[in-house]
């Protein structure tokens, strides 16, 4: 995570707000320009994927051993995840083809010996050793999402949240700013905010609802 201090700023006139080149959560892991977001809540595969999608990510795709090891160690050492034995990842088998939920190439795997079971279509990572095991989709476990840092890659569109990738987007937000339809405002999270900087003269950090708080805090 690149931001140590997260300051919330917003512009007046309803352009108000957002995020740039940063991951969704403060405790997200950023590796080779990919953000990994851990959710320590038991969910079945469908809901876990929907939860990742809601922040513009997908369930995590993993393409090399180093990244797999980073994720495994991070999960194993994160207090919140210490009790979680498995994490859903994005590898699944919708039609006899193993593929990643984010559509990236399936070009590396860490599948455990004896796997996959033909009747189980969804993979989880065993936090103890980083190996991948299939589980039925109805099984509920914590999960890890991945996606590009904000300001890069494609726009998240679900849950009312979008990142502008052009200068004149329909949501009126500046490029790389995020739009939250709950407030109809634009948001930008800065790592540092000098209140005396005239550039931010029209910014204020007002947070007016729990939904806005959730949106801003990730
Ligand atoms: C902050 O901006 C919002 C949206 O423009 C506005 O409604 C609110 O009154 C402002 N708050 C302050 C303290 O200026
Ligand atoms: C995703 O999971 C987090 C953590 O449990 C929760 O706070 C958030 O509301 C969920 N988002 C959706 C869209 O379900
Ligand atoms: C089914 O498999 C093909 C590859 O054989 C893939 O292109 C397609 O997207 C898959 N369908 C779904 C729903 O994932
Ligand atoms: C596998 O795919 C990922 C994601 O597109 C890419 O970054 C990586 O270079 C690929 N690895 C190999 C060995 O092709
Ligand atoms: C915001 O967008 C979401 C997803 O597109 C939609 O379900 C929701 O109704 C929208 N909320 C408002 C206030 O427009
Ligand atoms: C901001 O300006 C005020 C008034 O001029 C000054 O007292 C304060 O020290 C300044 N703060 C910073 C962080 O520069």
Automatic annotation (TrEMBL):
Keywords on record: Signal
Secretion signal, residue range per the UniProt entry: 1-20
Family matches, as SMART domains: CLECT
Matches recorded under InterPro entries: C-type_lectin-like, C-type_lectin-like/link_sf, CTDL_fold
Domain C-type lectin: 31-146
Presence of keyword Signal: yes
GO biological process: innate immune response
UniProt keyword Signal, yes or no: yes
Protein name, UniProt field: C-type lectin domain-containing protein
């Amino acid at each position: 995570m690149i931001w140590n201090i997260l300051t919330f700023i917003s512009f007046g006139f309803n352009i108000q707000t957002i995020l740039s080149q940063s991951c969704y959560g403060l405790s997200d892991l950023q590796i080779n320009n990919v953000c990994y977001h851990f959710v320590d809540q038991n969910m079945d595969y469908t809901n876990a994927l929907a939860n990742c999608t809601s922040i513009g990510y997908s369930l995590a795709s993993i393409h090399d051993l180093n990244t797999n090891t980073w994720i495994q160690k991070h999960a194993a050492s994160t207090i919140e995840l210490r009790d979680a034995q498995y994490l859903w990842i994005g590898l699944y088998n919708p039609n006899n083809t193993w593929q990643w939920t984010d559509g990236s190439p399936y070009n590396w795997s860490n599948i455990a010996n004896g796997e996959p079971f033909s009747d189980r279509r969804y993979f989880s990572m065993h936090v103890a050793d980083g190996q991948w095991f299939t589980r039925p989709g109805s099984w509920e476990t914590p999960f890890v999402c991945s996606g590009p840092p904000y300001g890069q890659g494609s726009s998240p569109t679900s849950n009312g949240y979008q990142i502008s990738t052009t200068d004149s987007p329909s949501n009126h937000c500046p490029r790389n700013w995020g739009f939250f339809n709950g407030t109809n405002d634009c948001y930008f999270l800065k790592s540092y905010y000098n209140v005396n900087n005239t550039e931010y003269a029209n910014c204020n950090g007002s947070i007016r609802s729990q939904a806005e708080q959730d949106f801003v805090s990730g």
